[in-house]
């Protein structure tokens, strides 16, 4: 049993550091595989891979060795002055893992920067090819694409974007395909098509010549709790984009690098996006790294027209790229993508069995090891629990006190719900899934007792 988190906070006095809230957590000491220890020796299972980042687990010796070797040579070289081998090799390896034609790689330091890069490359491509009227990027609600102002413009999550509304141009949104909430007589395939048609309607309403791109998370992350659309949705969205010459941007910041059981989630449906954003699992937390991967046909006109007017000091940092290269090799050599598929199926089955035990578990969803469950007051109607109960955050605390880290949010569609993401590193084993479930069940029991559920 863990000691209370408050007992292990370090430093004990006031700190100058601040994050989003006043939440205080114990100080990290070390981490290995799927486990994390604090300074008091308490151990947690990293049941959410941080924020769905630590895909290959912590302290992987091969990645650490690659980083040490690079550190002994050079940790920084500015891209306008020197090319560097780790960046070149990582770009080539990444391109080799993409769908046909998606072979130009641009490095950044995180997911928000990757999304910003996608938006700006798309716009510059339009200008370079004489399509100046195109600038609107249609997105979905709810969705999460990052914290910077450009990424917020396409993010459909009001609490994050509202305070800054005067500071950017909000982009048009269509509903995310929250089919699990729909109580109608349509089949799943029909629902998928109906949600996809909303894109077509929005394009027509906006004026097709003004629309530049559509951006989506192929499997939702924090915003929707691992929302997966019916298969019919994905192909129809691609068709609609093609009909109007609109670029399809897949934000695979969370889904990419194997998390859903394929290297890109796009592969599940055989979709070829025009631009892809990657980060999180791409360097798995060993370095701040992300990438935009774009079709050559988009990049060449931009470079010909004078260059991509966008870049970051740390783009292609040799140490970050050496880490990313070793991470991707580990994913390939250990077949962690395959393991995500196998272990994901097992974990999902165990999570689905929670519905027999807890009437307030209303839905279990996701792909590979990007999994979530949603807690509701009534499963039939999917009525959410009262907001003021803060059930998702309470469950996170119950789990935390039992040595399990999970990730939660409260939001969905126009209404609200509590969802919990259970997304361990892709190296997770069957016995470790047992450990996760044991702690999760104890946490759900504690929540049920606390809230009288
Ligand atoms: N896009 C998606 C789908 C995400 O899940 C996130 C982060 O959670 C981001 C973009 C932003 O990434 P970052 O926090 O690295 O800026």
CATH topology term of the largest domain: Aspartate Aminotransferase, domain 2
> What is the CATH architecture annotation of the largest domain?
3-Layer(aba) Sandwich
- C-alpha end-to-end distance: 24 Å
Shape: globular
- Classify the secondary structure makeup into a structural class: alpha/beta
Beta-strand content: 15-25%
Largest sheet, if any? Answer: 7 strands, mixed
Count of the separate structural domains: 2
The value of Rg in angstroms is: 22 Å
Low-confidence stretches: 1-8
Number of strands: 16
Helix content: 25-40%
What does this structure look like?
By secondary structure, the chain is of the alpha/beta class. It folds into two domains: 169 residues, Aspartate Aminotransferase, domain 1 (Alpha-Beta Complex); 272 residues, Aspartate Aminotransferase, domain 2 (3-Layer(aba) Sandwich). It is built from 13 helices and 16 strands. Strands 4-10-9-8-7-5-6 form a seven-stranded mixed beta sheet, sandwiched between helices. A hairpin with a 4-residue loop joins strand 12 and strand 13. The longest helix is centred in the C-terminal third of the chain and has 22 residues. It is globular. The two termini are 24 Å apart.
Break the fold down into its secondary structure elements and pairings.
Layout: E1 28-32, E2 35-38, E3 43-46, H1 49-52, H2 61-73, H3 85-96, E4 102-108, H4 111-128, E5 136-141, H5 149-153, H6 158-161, E6 173-175, H7 188-206, E7 211-216, H8 231-244, E8 247-251, E9 275-278, E10 290-295, H9 296-304, H10 318-333, H11 336-357, E11 361-367, E12 370-378, E13 383-384, H12 391-401, E14 404-405, E15 407-410, E16 418-422, H13 430-451
Parallel strand pairs: 3-14, 5-6, 5-7, 7-8, 8-9
Antiparallel strand pairs: 1-2, 2-3, 4-10, 9-10, 11-12, 12-13, 12-16, 15-16
Helix pairs in contact: 2-10, 3-10, 4-9, 7-8, 11-13, 12-13
The structure holds pyridoxal-5'-phosphate.
Pyridoxal-5'-phosphate (PLP) binds at residues 51, 110-112, 115, 144-147, 217, 221-222, 251, 253-254, 279.
